[in-house]
Amino acid sequence: MSLDLPRDDRLAPLSGPLVVAVMDGIGWGPRDGGDAVHLAATPHLDRIWSTSPTRTLAAHGRAVGLPSDADMGNSEVGHNALGAGRVVRQGAALVNDAIASGAIFESSTWSELAGPLVGCAQRTLHLCGLLSDGNVHSHIDHVFALIDGASRSGVSRVRIHPLADGRDVADPSYETYLAALDRHLDGHRAAGRDYAIASGGGRMVVTMDRYEADWSIVERGWKAHVLGDAPAFSSWHHAVETLRKEPGGGSDQTLGPFCIADASGPIGRVQDDDAFVFWNFRGDRAIELTRAFEDDAFDGFDRQRRPNVRFAGMMQYDGDLHLPSRYLVAPPTIDRTMGEFAARLGIRTLATSETQKFGHVTYFWNGNRSGTLDDSLETYVEIPSDRIAFNHAPLMKAAAITDVVAAALAGPRPPGIVRLNYANGDMVGHTGDLAATITAVQAVDTEIGRLLQLVQAHRGVLVVTADHGNADDMWMRAKDGTPKLGPGGSRLARTSHTLAPVPLTIVDTRSGPRSWQLRADLPHAGLSNVAATLFALKGYRAPEGYDAALIAPR
Fold this sequence. Notes:
Strand content: 15-25%
Number of helices: 17
Distance between the termini: 29 Å
């Protein structure tokens, strides 16, 4: 298909900037005492929501390519949908398909991993990843399938290195998932196989860093999973029970690292000629551990010892950098992204965010591709995130992001399209701290006000939306929506994403009457409808195959 886009003469062309602000994790929630978006003082958002064309969009489940509408959206699939302009079948669904068909175990990668282990009781298949059914980074059913596949392939020794979630599921709940895993392993142990849990820890302090925000997180994982260098316990029960009493132990996210040991020492050290699979299907928090295994010139931390292993990811986490070199399920191929069309049209583009979400407005928006699509037209600006708990600094780098936009619009070669992400609602929302999340939402509102002034000064259009819900519901809830209560009657904090729709508002500051109107015939529209809408605001028809624009000529 062509990358050429025809003009739509019914729509006024836009000479000023088109600024797309993604308020990460700010959905349209229950509007009660657990809704930080509702509780926050948001004069700027309130004003544009009430005076400019506004609607909500689906941002979870099948609307963003996930297997079912019970699946929460996330930043990865949300930005894929925003940039792709149509719904693309995503990681969890692709893995489900590969497992259901058996293709995952018929692949050359599986043969390379498992084949050399068959008949060799001293060589081990290591399986590592996030242990939950959150279905954002991973799913426990996929772990079970890999274990069963190893058994069918004749692998006699398997070690599991499960990480605690507490972010995409209830917090705490690690013990529940570990118990389920242990029960699954019992069947294999009864058949004489040496299958065991070997190490673990919480995702925000062990292994699952992203965008090189804090390599010490990956280092702790390397030490626990690979070297067996972590507090040692005789069982996972003893480990978790003890670590719960330590600083950070109250949350699964910040539970300290541990390893399981017997009289001979840690039972899960990774040795030469072992195989190691990282079972997460989402890439952002998998790339750094992948690099630690595969990068000959690695300098993230002192690995001390780098075993010669066959490493594979559940999926390829970065197609351009070919990380990892082995993977079990091919990632979605997303071509003809919004960025590609913009480059073909010669539109100068700025993409900016802080470290925590920088990859989302670049890599994920561009269809899982690293780097710029056209160096002559695109500028990507990353602002380093704070390395402290986000609820202790809920303002994050929102103001600095707006500063980058202001400087670009005032520069000699201003961008025609700006895409940016304010990470506050998501990253602070994940801490479960309601008060801090309210402050985070207010910080985003302040920056939306600044953006609006910038866009007005240049007679442009501001589009404000979000990628999924989070800050909009900070309470765990029963099926009837009532808050769940903990010991003493306190409400249990929610740290995961939500199923909430997200707002979309279009503020057109050009003089004269608008040439467009918000369509009323797309009640179930989602994030994938945004890209065609942006092209319509620039005066172009939607690319062939894109989901419909949310606006139509008057």
